Amino acid sequence: MNDTVRKAGEAPKPSEASAWQVRAAAYELLALSFRYPDRTLAEAVAGGEWADAATEVAEALGVPMGDSAQLGHVDGRGVEELLHALRVEATRLFVGAPEPLVPPFEGVWRAADDGVQALLFVNPHSMEVERFMRSCGLGRPEGTNEPLDHAATELEFLQWLCMLAGGMAQAPEGVEAPDGGWAGAHDRFLEDHARTWMPRFAQGVAAESREPFYRAAAELLEAVLG
User: Is the pLDDT of residue 92 over 90?
Assistant: First the structure.
């Protein structure tokens, strides 16, 4: 039984809840990996915790991970050195000058598919992402002006939908599950948005990155999206 046929308010079965919990953990790890690097990420990578979590997630989901997964393990650099290196690489890959090597926004990839110029915020794909998120009770955080179709933000949203589907979180007051339930919302967003561009984004990161960590994170992303 899934949320498509489950009655409103009926709790998921334990096995279903566990599956949603694993997938939520995968999205959480990936969102951390593709946000602008902070000390939390550097400490996890430097200490090997990131690689351990990636391996655990991949095994739990039954997705293949190649040799590059091992590159996320300790490489001998301290936290400060690694944090600096990751920030330099994230800037080179995802910010760039004048353009990023691998754009982290859905709207940029989808605009290229449509053969039009990408305009952040106001392109139809970015606006559709924002409408989808708002319909599920989430909006733009106060004090931020980054488009919501950033890879990390979409991954965090998928994590949120998993938590709702698995009964680990409750929607904000006044927000009801859409047709098909939260599991259906997760599946629609995955198919209509994440899978339309993130596999190519992951392949671009793997091809362009000079940092072993980003190659490992890209491989995990592509495997999870499968």
Answer: yes
